[in-house]
Each structure stands twice: as C-alpha cells, then as structure tokens.
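Feature request disguised as a bug: please show the residue count (330) next to Carbohydrate-binding module family 12 protein in the output. Example input:
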Amino acid sequence: MQYWEPGTNYPAGAQVEYEGHRYKIIQPHTSQSDWTPVVTPALWGRLDDHDTGESNYHQAQQQHAHHHRHHSQGEKQLHDVLESQAPRPSGQSVDIHHEERQKHWYDLDDNRKKELEIGGGLLAGAALIAGGYAAFKGHEKNEQEKKSQTWALQNWLHDAQVRTTEYYQRGPRSPATWLLVEGPQAGKIPQGAIAVGQEVGRESSWMLYICRAFYEGGIQVGKASEAFKKGAVIGYKHEEIHLSTYEVLVGDMDGLRWVDASGVLNVSQLGYQPVEGGREPDGTPLYIAEASYDGVAHHPGKASEMLDGAYIPHGGTEKNVKSYRVLCYV
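Example output, currently without the count:
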C-alpha cells in the first residue's frame, strides 16, 4: 500500500498508509502538506488496522464523520468567542448577533433600526466614512441609503476582523483566506499573499497582490501593493478607487490553480470551483481574475456571469480584457 504524500491527486477508491494506519478516500482531492489524513476526517476515513473489509471502512467513516461534527462545533464555538471579542466601533453599546449582521438594513424593523442608530455604532461608521474611507459617494445618497451602506460596511469590517484573528490564532482552514489590512498596517502585504504579477515603472518595479474592499454596497476585487500610497486599488464603474482599509488574499497555490476563461464567465464550464472574491451591490458573485492589459504586467481583477470579460483597475480606470484566467480551488 502506498504511503500518503502531499501534492498527490487521490481519486475515488484510493487507500494510503499514514503514521502506521490505513485510510481510504472519502472526498477525492489533491493533498496538501497540512491536510494529512489524521487531521482531515472529511477527506479520509480510517480503516481497521487488522481488516481490509469494506464494513470496517464504513464504520470508520461514520466515526470520523461524528468526530468531524464535534470538530465543526468546536470551530463554531471558537468563531463565536472571537466574534464577541472583535473590537466594537466607537459608540456601539448594543449587541449585534451574527445572524443579524447577514441581514440587509432594509430588512430590519423600524424599532431595531433606531436601536442600532443610537447604540449600534452607526454614527462611528459614518465618521469613518467622513474620515476618508470611500465606502460610497455620500452626496449621491439619501439618509437611509447612507445608513444602509454604513451598516453593510461595519458588518464587512467586523467579519474581516474575526476571520483575520482566527487565521493568526489557528492557522489556515482552507487554501485561500482573506486577511484584513487597515490603519497603521495599510500598505503592508501579509506573509503568504498570492502574487499575480510584477508591474514595471520607469525607475522601479513592484509586485501586485489580490485584494478586495467594500465600496458602494458591494465588495469589489482589485490589486494591492506596498508601492501604492494607500495600499489598495479597486475598480468600480470605470474608476480606480484607492483605499487604506481592505483585505488581501493569502493562500497555498498547491490547493489552487488559474483556469483559462474568456468573455462572459461560465462557472459550470470551468471544471473547478472558483474562489469567490466579492459581490456586486445587487448580490451578484464576483470571482478573482488575472489578465494582462498592456501585454507586460498581469493585474488582478474581477469576472462574473454578468460581465463580458474580466475588468482590471489600471491607468485611472477599469480595463476590459476578453481573455483572462480565474482563480479556482483544485
């Protein structure tokens, strides 16, 4: 029997030996160094060491599924603790539960809206925007629209803070993770960030990394670099938006791959599950694309099933590129 090894494509029916025990595949995948059989019961079921029969495998599979459920419950408990410890915006005195954060502002009842306006930190969120975070063009919004987008901005920041804290405390839980960069860290690229390309200027060059940020009610995908004044640049409606509060994608390319695409993205034809990068204000998913506009540097950008090609922020605007690649899970 073959020994388990990282970087190996294990198909249905595969069996391996690891640390003196035998395992059978549950979910076909390409192995990674930190996805060993002993710590990934969702991928491998342990076989009885003294019996090659299928019955023992199914029993082991059930036992590992039970273990995985308890493990998932532990992860949820950790998430809840981290969520409760996440820094509150100045002025937030009422508790906001995770389920409530997933709701749109307009779906909340009027009494709850009033509570959140007074004790939910919305005024602090508005101050954040006034202080330079370009969440939206304020002069084009009525008061309810401003409150709605401030609510969405705060929820995105809160979730990003929890996710980033969990990553640094427990390590990666998947091949790709979004990490928050803000405040004094603006412009600092986290270790393990996925590099897309190198842009060359007249006197210097700089690497381009994948980022995303909240803007105009959605989460837009763009590029980050230590060479940028604010750290991140996203594209929206043919404009480049510079931001100092954003997320950078870190990951392990052993569990990811770039897949060729062109024109309007057809997710079902990719052959792999794309990594979701963000969403449009109407909820349309945005996926991570990379493309070259000038034939030299490759830039990160966005693609979706509603856009004709990829859009990359470049030269003060957004460039439409018909042939591009999409980041997918292996």
